[in-house]
UniProtKB/TrEMBL annotation:
Ranges for region Disordered: 57-88
Descriptive protein name: Zf-TFIIB domain-containing protein
One Pfam match: Zn_ribbon_TFIIB
Compositionally biased intervals (Basic and acidic residues): 57-67
Comp. bias (Basic residues): 68-78
The Transcription factor zinc-finger domain, residue ranges: 2-42
Lineage of origin: Bacteria, Pseudomonadati, Bacteroidota, Cytophagia, Cytophagales
Amino acid sequence: MKCPNCSETLLMSDKNGVEIDYCPNCRGIWLDRGELEKIMERSADHYSKKENYEADSKRYGYGDHGHSSHKKHPHKKKESFLSDFFDF
């Protein structure tokens, strides 16, 4: 299958049971029907457990708006558990 954006051949990757098509050239990510729903469903399952939310809060710094962390990495976005899906 070709990338709709740049016509490069898409590569496939299985991430936690969800098959993701991605473009190595433009780094676009393409999901088939139902795959976004699977990702959203798994995120809801993940965060429905308090211990997962607390662990991710510490790991990724959710709610941490302190100025000292912003000065160290002013342009780096905070990661979430979804970054595990999209680590190409």
